[in-house]
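User: Let's play a game. I give you a shape written as tokens, and you guess the letters that built it. Ready? Here's round one.
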């Protein structure tokens, strides 16, 4: 009996989400956008994000990777669990998370998956970008999200509308960046900012008042070379505090190595 997988074993999505550096870049980019999102107050309601932003990163990664690498039944169970968690938060607060806020998070995962892979690996073909979109579209449909785009082209239009309409610099932005610095330390915080500059759409670049070009850009080629000689762990160690070393190593995986 053949096992049905939520994401095809040969999918580019498995390649993207099977590498620790790509995942770390995805969440570096998303961390900037989360701080600017007009619905960021929902992330503050439980207090978990500002209290432990790095821990929340690994928690989110675990759900995403269960979906990407598991059989269909296990993936759908993970999606159902996420849906119930959101419903519980809504019940406690007394009203629903806006539909557009759900879409925004989904759109971030699509966008930064593509941006991070293209930065660290190669340009994606249109069919591969569509594949990334289709995988996360399935997630959105299974989470009963409303108003989702039906095609990659439609997503591109909606994504641009989101960047123009759903972001603002607020007190939450200031506080969340303070938490990033507190939990990362000054040096790693500076590296985070430079990484965000590599990935940020122009709207985010402007809102965060990034004034100069990313100084890490010339180092990307050097980083790619370091992977050839298996010393890329040095660069990864610069991104997060030492206590997360084991979690970072676990992010590297092959299509056949994932087991839940």
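Assistant: Ready! My guess for every position:
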């Amino acid at each position: 009996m053949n096992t049905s997988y939520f994401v095809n074993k040969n999918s580019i999505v498995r390649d993207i989400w099977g590498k620790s550096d790509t995942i770390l870049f995805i969440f570096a980019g998303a961390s900037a956008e989360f701080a600017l999102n007009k619905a960021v107050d929902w992330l503050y309601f439980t207090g978990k994000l500002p209290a432990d932003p790095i821990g929340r990163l690994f928690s989110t990664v675990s759900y995403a990777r269960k979906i990407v690498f598991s059989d269909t039944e296990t993936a759908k169970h993970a999606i159902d669990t996420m849906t119930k968690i959101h419903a519980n938060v809504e019940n406690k607060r007394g009203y629903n998370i806006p539909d557009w806020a759900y879409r925004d998070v989904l759109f971030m995962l699509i966008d930064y998956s593509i941006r991070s892979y293209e930065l660290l690996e190669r340009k994606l073909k249109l069919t591969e970008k569509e594949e990334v979109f289709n995988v996360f579209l399935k997630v959105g449909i299974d989470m009963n999200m409303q108003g989702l785009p039906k095609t990659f082209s439609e997503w591109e239009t909606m994504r641009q509308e989101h960047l123009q309409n759903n972001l603002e610099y607020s007190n939450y932005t200031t506080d969340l960046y303070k938490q990033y610095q507190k939990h990362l330390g000054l040096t790693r915080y500076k590296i985070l900012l430079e990484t965000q500059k590599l990935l940020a759409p122009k709207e985010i670049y402007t809102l965060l008042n990034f004034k100069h070009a990313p100084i890490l850009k010339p180092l990307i080629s050097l980083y790619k070379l370091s992977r050839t000689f298996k010393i890329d762990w040095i660069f990864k160690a610069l991104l997060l505090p030492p206590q997360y070393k084991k979690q970072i190593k676990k992010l590297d995986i092959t299509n056949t190595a994932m087991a839940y």
